[in-house]
Amino acid sequence: MDKKYSAEPYRIKMVEPIKETSRQEREMLLKNAGYNPFSLKSEDVYIDLLTDSGTGAMSQEQWGAMMVGDEAYAGSRSFFKLESVVRNITGYQYFMPVHQGRGAEQVLLPQLVTKKGMYYISNIHFDTTRAHVELAGARALDCVIEACFDIDLDHPFKGNFDLDQLERIINSKGKENIAGIIMTITNNSAGGQPVSMENLRAVKQIANKYQIPTIIDGARYAENAFFIKQREKGYEDKTIIDIAREECSYADIFLMSAKKDGLVNMGGIIAIKDNEELFNKCKVTVIPYEGFPTYGGMNGRDMEALSVGLMEGLDERYLRHRTDQVRYLGDKLKAAGVPIQYPIGGHAVFVECKRFAPHIPSYQFPALSVTNAIYLEAGIRAVEIGSLLLGRDPDTHENKVSEMELMRLTIPRRVYTYKHMDVVADAVIHVYQHRHELKGYEFVYESPILRHFTSTFKPIGGLK
Ligand code: F0G
Predict the structure, then answer these.
(1) 23-52+316-459 is classed in which CATH architecture?
(2) What is the pLDDT of residues 197-226, one digit of tens each?
(3) Could you give the CA distance from residue 161 to residue 143 in angstroms, rounded to a whole number?
(4) Model-level pTM greater than 0.85?
(5) What is the CATH number of domain 60-312?
């Protein structure tokens, strides 16, 4: 393999066997799943690239740390250990654990919505973030730079905020109606694209001018820090933790799904810089939803694993390999002409299926078609992020049309090898070379809410 991709910085000492199936079996399995990959059993999947969330492998240090977990209901030793790690990274005073990212959203986001008709603004809200903004009675507005939608454009920070648009929104809605600005780093929905330090700093300046609180959605804050080190002038010689600290310095609140860069299978974080009143309000809310504020939906052993995982997630050699492995897959696809979001982001390769299968209209879900085809080809499970996920307009009931029809090949952390990436690349390239054979899909059953998870389909005109 080319030296430009670093090898795994670890040895593997526990393995989980994976089953291989024949094409004939996969045809049956997918049919039985209603042509919806979410309904496949994971044991019928050869390489599972559905998500990088909670699917990573823990280290020997993490498994070892679990043995000393303190399971006290209140004030456990494991809580104080995790609190000191979070304080060390963020520089913030207040911390409480939650069971995962959406738990943090559920507790924190409603606190800043003080009246009707308020807005959160983000570079792009992740789906659950948007849902919690709406459940809190506010509305979610996105303002990512236009470059994000041009997949071929080589821009180092496609996750950035459009700063002019941000100020325009604040002025048109009125600063008193903005509940907060959410900086999603990396920007998952834009293709795992990073946000530059310069952009974070500028967003903070705008927020200060209008006295609006800033929130980091830091699910992949360490990958973002690594990209800043690689791509932004002045950061080449800084350590990842120092870059992460600077990221945090531009926010007042840090929310995290620890299932990503925390290198654990379950867990989440709320950290607040210095607003004691807000922290006290969160403490009141967290108890009925998540649990007592010193465990908040986690147990002692999981807090121990997270204390170790957060630091491992900031290790530069780990991050280099992590991003190299994703880039290796993306480079192979790009070299074969497969349309992907470029430069390749932190946690996944996003394939643009509008261009992959232009003969399939959005309402026949081109990215579902490609996703199903790679399962049939090689037992690989990816995920549709396009018009199927976007759903229908609640008023007109028309199918909404997504700006991009993406298939996300999401790489779990420390789980698969480069050889697995070769298998994935070969399958996607094979399907690309036979793309004219791809069929659109129609509903057999359309679920009324969050339809992508549970609907069933059939290929229009059959598979062959
Ligand atoms: N924020 C971002 C940017 C995310 O990517 C996710 C989850 C969340 C918040 C919610 O965190 O799942 O722990 O409740 N993303 C997963 C994904 C589900 O597949 O991208 P959670």
Answers:
(1) Alpha-Beta Complex (3.90)
(2) 999 999 999 999 999 999 999 999 999 999
(3) 6
(4) yes
(5) 3.40.640.10
